[in-house]
Amino acid sequence: MAKFFKSDRRRPLILNPDQRASQSVFGLERDEVHVWHASLDLPEGAVSDLERSLSLDERERAARFRFAADRQRFVSGRGLLRLLAGAYLGCAPAAAPIGYGAFGKPYLAMRSGPEAIAFNLSHAGALVVFAFRRGHALGVDIEQLDCRLDVSQIAHQYFTAQETADIMARSTQERYLRFFEFWTLKEAVVKALGKGLTLPLREFDVSAIGEAPYQAQSLWLGPAKLCLSVHQFTPAADYVGALAVSGGAVRLVHLDLRWMRPQGWEISPFHSPGGIGCYS
Ligand SMILES: CC(C)(COP(=O)(O)OP(=O)(O)OC[C@H]1O[C@@H](n2cnc3c(N)ncnc32)[C@H](O)[C@@H]1OP(=O)(O)O)[C@@H](O)C(=O)NCCC(=O)NCCS
Asked: Which of 27, 142, 174, 268 is the most buried if burial means most Cβ atoms within 10 Å?
């Protein structure tokens, strides 16, 4: 946390959607990934503050949601993305230049090369996670453990034989956890590459990647001729998360972004919850 803020602040840093920063608020070292954790279930005042920064196409997308709760979560997620992107780039959230790749991966269309800031995000239930890195692509995925899924059927359909055997050899409770660990790892890899399913999920195997307590590991992707650094984390009880990063080893800085009335968004270190249960 010490190197995170550009200035040596003793008080918590507050972000505000109406900020007019002219230079970046955060220091993002080359070997760091900032992983932001936030809730998408926000009070009305916070949502409307965030909504003001959305672009026209984002507002149109929001309007297409059938259910108010889904619409509100989308607005909150986009608003938070803009809040963070603006703080990294040194611009107002509304001015953060979010573009989309051929397969729908969002990116910051500003600088290119080693100084460019890459990001990815994932939402599940009321949680959202954003990951930011300088100069190298990354993918993040979080999932809520769901004991209603037919993990055997999905594993046989999408996972490698080794991954499926690893899952099926476990007790029922452990089976769900391992299944979602593999799922998030595979999604994070696919999202890091940003090309949807052009890398078939069965063409790479994550079964050698350890279980909790999690440690960073390397994953060689033969078909893509690429080595990724992969990291797992626990965003909340009953959730699992994974991050895949190109460009060598990184340090993860997990941060919590929380709405504090009336000041704005307070930043603090994120503490991972210990308990992993199962949502059903
Ligand atoms: C794009 C995809 C990876 C999203 O995954 P998801 O678990 O449904 O949803 P997440 O919340 O984790 O991620 C959604 C975000 O990913 C980002 N995204 C969209 N397309 C992307 C792409 N091609 N690459 C990376 N990120 C992408 C977007 O920011 C999106 O959020 P937004 O629409 O609010 O902007 C998913 O739709 C997909 O193609 N999955 C293929 C893999 C698969 O089928 N796995 C099954 C079992 S392992």
From this structure: 142
Q: Could you read off the pLDDT of 104-151 as tens digits, one per residue?
A: 999 998 766 667 999 999 999 999 999 999 999 999 999 999 999 999
Token pair for residue 211?
């279980």
For the chain, the structural domain boundaries read: 13-269
Choosing from 70, 108, 121, 151 the residue with most ligand 1 atoms within 8 A of its CB, the one to mutate for a pocket test is: 121
Q: Which residue is closest in CA terms to ligand 1's atom 10?
A: 122
Cα angle for residues 203, 163, 131 (degrees, 5° grid): 70
- Indicate the class that CATH gives domain 13-269: alpha beta
State the Cα–Cα distance between residues 203 and 223, nearest whole angstrom: 7
Joined tokens for residue 207: 């079964």
What count of other Cβ atoms lies within 10 Å of the Cβ of residue 215?
A: 10
**Can you give the C-alpha Rg of the chain in angstroms?**
19
What is the phi-psi region of residue 264: left when phi exceeds 0, alpha when psi lies from -120 to 50, beta otherwise?
Answer: left
| Model pLDDT, residue 225 | 85
Contact 128, 80 (CB under 8 A): yes
- 89 alpha carbon – ligand 1 mean position (Å): 24
At residue 195, φ and ψ (nearest 5 deg) are -115, 30
Residue ranges of the chain with per-residue pLDDT less than 70: 1-12, 19-22, 111-114, 274-280
